[in-house]
Write a structure and sequence with these properties.
The chain has 19 helices and 17 strands. It is of the alpha/beta class. The chain is globular, with a radius of gyration of 27 Å. The N and C termini lie far apart (about 70 Å).
């Protein structure tokens, strides 16, 4: 029996040790997020994390380990070598998680699955940006595989002199134990990510390990319809939430969002239908960097702060997700991110959906999408094409792009803005141009040392993009099309935020130089999915759309959903946090931006929970069942 335990111990102890080390490193690396918790709470999170560690081990070895009691000699050594590769993969996933958490504020979820086609480029980027860490990681990985295999050789020299019947019994016991470990215990439902969040987000992130999440997704995740609310009630709640019954016509009841705008939701405000539109999507730009945050350093983005004193500045606007692909989908297709898939990387991208470029092209606009990254960076290039843009330009379309290349992702932002200006000058009016910046993306390179004004590299890159924005407006203001152009600046998502509220909070600024938009702040709560219906309202276009949002000028109260490792539903001054369909807490995001002081449930709580579940369910189910728009509708 001693030999049996030795064989099993070599299977699981290295993995447990790896998970413990990385949980400790995670705590150390992000200590500023945990320093307010007591030692008892931290210890409880560590102990709770062991359950998830055993869960990952059980999911991996419940079947694979059944051969353990039948192998010997070199075959057993080879088996341990294969196991060392599995633990090596977990090691690499843990390293990636330790790095990416700084930027996403979530443990590594399905990125490795949805970005599988980008792993080569992403690995190169990590190597270039974190050479020392990459070298140490590689050294530890190779050393660990060697040491693990050496231990396997030592154990393989010890034969297992037991009868075949006892081996079968050992297999049965082993299988039962490891299946229990894999499902996290004997409870009715298997262990899920939601189980880690019982003590809040921050401690929950300490409890989780990325290997468990990845395995759960690989082995069990499948996209299915939600059934939180009876369908008829859910659809009625969504129509009420959008408040479009009097201003829109719904031609088909089985298409819950498909509607035609028949009347304005903002009779007090409109602009000429033939107005040019320039939409600038600023990479990783949080509102906490701007004058909307009284504590922000005004020198970080001085041009945006100056320019945004003209026109409409939306001060309660939120991102839909944590990645560029989610932000662009919400802005251009008015589709939110969902927990189980990302639209751009999913098969549902084939389903017909309404998009801004298609609607505007139907109304006589020439449409162009410009980004400086390599042609199909994270699916963005092909997504832009699928939305109906006439022209999609990427890094390779810039003249002498090698001289304008940042050496990592693509073209410096100043050249992106220059190309935007060039396209505007050459296109037939009215035009719709979307320019997506990238210089403020990791690894935060700069074209010139004069922009290195701050200690944090990421602040310097925002300072550089802001300078480029200022140069763009200075040049654009001399062009004949300037006065008749609506300029929109918005972020795809945030990074480096210091609170849960700031994680989701992004700026939205609209400016038309002829003064047709008032110079004021707009206080309606809204999100990225609201941009499409808002522009239809502004331009007074009576068009069909499948938008999941509502006009930011609607008289009724707005809403926004932020999808991260958990979901946050913003309504007025309250933030409702959810894990799947479970309400975790209610917070006043204005006075408690880090969501530390839960509010008691009140008479409105049940209504808001129902609104959130209905909106999420109806949109998700309509997308995966192809009920967003009529088939073949362009």
């Amino acid at each position: 029996m001693t030999i049996i335990f030795q064989r099993i111990a070599l299977l699981i102890l290295p993995a447990l040790f790896t998970f413990f080390i990385f949980r400790s490193l995670f705590l150390w690396r992000y200590w500023e997020r945990f320093e307010t918790f007591s030692s008892g709470e931290l210890m409880q999170s560590f102990l709770h994390g062991i359950r998830f560690d055993f869960g990952a081990i059980g999911l991996t070895l419940s079947i694979l380990g059944l051969v353990l009691f039948w192998l010997k000699g070199r075959v057993l050594v080879f088996f341990y070598f294969l196991c060392s590769l599995i633990w090596g993969l977990f090691f690499l996933i843990s390293v990636a998680d330790l790095i990416q958490y700084e930027f996403s504020n979530q443990r590594l979820l399905f990125d490795l699955l949805t970005l599988k086609d980008q792993l080569a480029r992403t690995s190169f980027l990590v190597w270039e940006s974190y050479k020392f860490v990459s070298f140490i990681t590689l050294l530890c990985l190779l050393g660990g595989i060697y040491a693990y295999t050496a231990c396997g050789k030592w154990i393989a020299r010890l034969d297992l002199p037991i009868h075949w019947f006892k081996r079968i019994c050992a297999n049965v016991v082993y299988l039962v134990v490891f299946v229990i470990l894999g499902r996290g215990g004997l409870q009715t439902k298997p262990l899920t990510v939601q189980n880690a969040l019982t003590h809040g987000y921050t401690l929950g992130h300490l409890t989780l390990n990325p290997a468990f999440i990845t395995l759960r997704l690989v082995l069990f995740s499948h996209i299915k319809t939600y059934d939180y609310v009876p369908p008829d009630i859910a659809q009625a709640n969504v129509r009420s939430l959008l408040n479009t019954q009097e201003t829109h016509h719904y031609p088909q009841n089985d298409l819950p969002f498909y509607r035609k705008r028949t009347a304005s939701q903002n009779p007090w405000l409109s602009i000429d239908t033939n107005t040019n539109i320039v939409l600038i999507v600023w990479e990783s730009f949080g509102a906490f960097l701007t004058r909307l945050n009284p504590d922000a350093d005004p020198n970080i983005v001085p041009n945006f702060n100056r320019l945004s004193r003209q026109g409409l500045l939306f001060d309660q606007f939120f991102a839909n997700g944590v990645r560029s692909m989610e932000g662009l989908t919400a802005l251009l297709s008015s589709l939110p991110a969902y927990d189980d898939f990302t639209f751009i990387m999913s098969p549902f991208q084939q389903n017909p959906v309404s998009t801004l470029p298609r609607i505007l092209k139907k109304n006589g606009y020439s449409t162009t999408f410009i980004h400086g990254a390599y042609p199909d960076s994270f699916g963005i290039h092909s997504y832009a094409k699928s939305t109906g843009f006439d022209t999609v330009l990427s890094r390779d379309d810039f003249e002498n792009y090698q001289d304008k290349f940042d050496g990592r992702w693509g073209i410096w932002d100043q050249y992106l803005f220059d190309r935007t200006l060039q396209e505007a000058n050459s296109q037939q009016q009215p035009f719709f141009i979307t320019a997506f910046t990238l210089s403020s993306h990791i690894p935060y390179n700069l074209p010139d040392e004069r922009f290195r004004q701050f200690d944090q590299p990421w602040l310097n890159t925002h300072h550089y993009t802001d300078w480029s924005l200022g140069q763009f407006f200075a040049k654009a203001s001399t062009q004949p099309w300037y006065q008749n152009t609506l300029f929109i600046v918005v972020a795809d998502h945030t990074k480096h935020a210091e609170s849960y509220h700031a994680d989701a909070w992004i700026p939205l600024w609209m400016f038309k130089p002829d003064g047709s938009l008032p110079n004021q702040s707009h206080h309606q709560v809204g999100g990225q999915v609201d941009l499409l219906p808002t522009l239809l309202d502004l331009l007074n276009l009576e068009e069909f759309s499948s938008s999941t949002g509502k006009s930011l000028f609607a008289a009724s109260e707005g809403f926004a959903m932020y999808d991260a490792s958990d979901n946050t539903w913003f309504r007025a001054e309250k933030a409702y946090t959810f894990s799947e369909n479970k309400l975790l807490g209610i917070y006043n995001w204005k006075t408690d931006p880090n969501f530390e002081h839960p509010l008691p449930q009140d008479a409105l709580t049940a209504k808001e929970v129902l609104s959130y579940l209905s909106w999420r369910q109806v949109g998700h189910n309509a997308l995966i069942t192809n009920k967003i728009m009529p088939l073949f509708q362009d």
